Amino acid sequence: MKVWLDGGLVEEAEARVPVTDHGFLYGDGIFEGMRVYHRKLFRLEDHLARLATAARALALEIPGGVDGARQAVLETARAFDQDEAYLRLIVSRGEGPLGVDPTTCPRSRLVCIADDVRIYSDEKMHAGISLITSSWRRPSADVLDPRVKSLNYLNNAMAKLEARQRGADEALLLNAAGHIAEASVANLFAVREGKLLTPPATDGALEGITRRSILELAAQEGLPAEERSLGRFDLFAASEVFLTGSGARIVPVGSLDGRPIGGSTRPVMDQLSLAFGRLTEEAGTPLGG
Ligand SMILES: Cc1ncc(COP(=O)(O)O)c(C=O)c1O
Q1: What pLDDT does residue 213 have?
Q2: Rounded CA gap, 247 and 54, in Å?
């Protein structure tokens, strides 16, 4: 693991944040998760743009601005020095007195961590993961906008906990209207009658960068795709269901609430996975070396 903290790389043992940081006290902050594939940072500028938008939405200053964040990511990734890596970039409100008031925190804090992250075994990546419909609903945008990738991930964590306690791999989150939002930390796609479907972000999903890449690749591959509201019915009716995310990558779903979903083959997901693999080889910010 390599860690960047407050302006430079630090030893892992020294990578400590004070207990008075409002990111710790109140979940006041934002983050990004991104990947290095083949020594190239995939969609770095998209991640930085989403971070900047989230910072604006929360009136949070990125220390050193977007250029500072880019430098931290690239230097941490170079120090990690692996062909493949997962990068976690965090901006917290910084230290302040007890009390939720963000104006009492004079300096926000930037942290970047590079490490290996593997969420599902090879076997699950092949056979498909199990989903349960979570009893936790995704909060609406006027409560806690799911389009902001904030440090406030209790809803996601509780849904994941429920899935694990019920013996499943992942949770499916619905919004208050019963429409599918996404999984705990990944977007969802279904294929029905040859058409790729994914819920709109306004149904309670993050505007995922892997999701966007998949929609762009579908257009290039001539696969029809549509962003529209989906219910559990659509998943039971689908020939394929899969999740996407920087951490998880492209993950087939094999069952929902104990019932098998999709068919025995996944031609659309396989085609898109191949195209995604090519994209990660060709595109991205080179780390050099
Ligand atoms: C809640 C949530 N949804 C979806 C995603 C997928 O987004 P991306 O493809 O940008 O990683 C993430 C992050 O991995 C997430 O935290």
Answers
A1: 98
A2: 19
